[in-house]
Structures are given as structure tokens and as C-alpha cells.
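Researcher: We're teaching a course module on how sequence relates to structure. For the next exercise, students receive a sequence and then see the predicted structure as C-alpha cells, so they can try to spot secondary structure elements on their own. Here is the exercise chain.
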Amino acid sequence: MARIIRIHPDNPQEKAIDQVVEVLKNGGLVIYPSDTVYGLGCDITNYKAMENLARLKGVKLDKAQFSIVCNDLSHLSNFTRPIDNATFKILKRALPGPFTFVLPASGNLPLAYKGKKTVGIRVPDHLVPRMIVEKLGNPIASTSIYDEDEIIEYTTDPELIAEKWNHLVEVVVDSGYGDNVASTVVDLSDGEIAVLREGKGEIDEFL
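Model: And here is the predicted structure for the students to work with:
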């Protein structure tokens, strides 16, 4: 049964953040807020948790395309191969923000990402996930919480999310209503700029 942990979006309580981090360290799955939609994630270094995450999404782990949430640009650079100045400038302007950037993956990514040439990276403009990642010491693997309703697409109310995911995750972080528009996915992995999914972020503003 999922525990609901309420965390203020602008002034996160450290004790509550620690509770979420403890669950992640123990291999739990957590639903958390972001600057776009609510996300579902786990510690990327916990292989069993990653397998559970893939199972929930109905995919095999080696076929999964989970992005990772980092807390800042320097953290992000630990998991990507060296990037050129033009790419770095875009990232610096756009992050934190509502983007997922596809970048060349480095060998520092854990076993669950073995063989992946690229990785989607998020640094959300939301204190709660960034503080969770910073305290955890590792990124969290991340995927959006979809809704079967064709009109809604993304559930924004954390109480409804908790009701639906009650027996599937360990914790739902309630930081108020989420957005219903996902991140913009931008591929910067080969020196070109390719928008793979239009979302909340307008990448043209940062070019």
C-alpha cells in the first residue's frame, strides 16, 4: 500500500525528503512531482528496482528507454560523454527546465543502461525531485504517469494518482496538482538539434 508523503513544492521539508530517499535506497518505486507531469521512478543503481519499473511499464528492461533525473548540470556530466560547447550552452540556458535532452551515454551509467548509446537527461525546474536526487547521491530513472483516459492523458491530482497506483509503488509524493503537459524531448546526441516530442518546453527560446 502506497504511503503518501506531502512535501511543499517551494520549501521542501528535509525530513520528508529523507523519507523518500530511504525508500529509494531500499529499492522502492516512487511517484514524484516535476515541472511537467508527475513521474514514476527509482534509483538507477538498483537493478531489481529498475526491473520492477520496466515491468510496470510493460517492457523488458533492456528495451526500456527510461530518462534519468539529475540535480544540476555538473551531475548530468557524470553520465554523458563529453559534449561540445554549442550543446553545453543550450543545456546551460534551458536547464533546469521542462526538457528531456537525449545525449551520448557514458560508461558511468549502471548495469541497467548497459549497451545504451544515448540517455535522456532531465533537470526539472522543481525543487522536490532535485533535492531527492541530491540526497540520494544518484539520479532516479524516470517515466511519466500516463492515464488510460484518451482525453486526460496525464493525471494531475496526486490523490487520484495514489488511488490508482496504491498497490504498485511504495510512495506517492504529494506536492499539489501537477501539469498535464509532458517535457519536450530534444535529441542533441549527434551535434544536430532534433525535437522528438513537442511538450511544455520551447527549445527555440534557448538556441
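Model: If you want an answer key for the exercise: Strands lie at 3-6, 30-32, 39-43, 67-69, 99-104, 118-122, 140-144, 171-174, 184-187, 194-197. The two ends are 45 Å apart (CA to CA).
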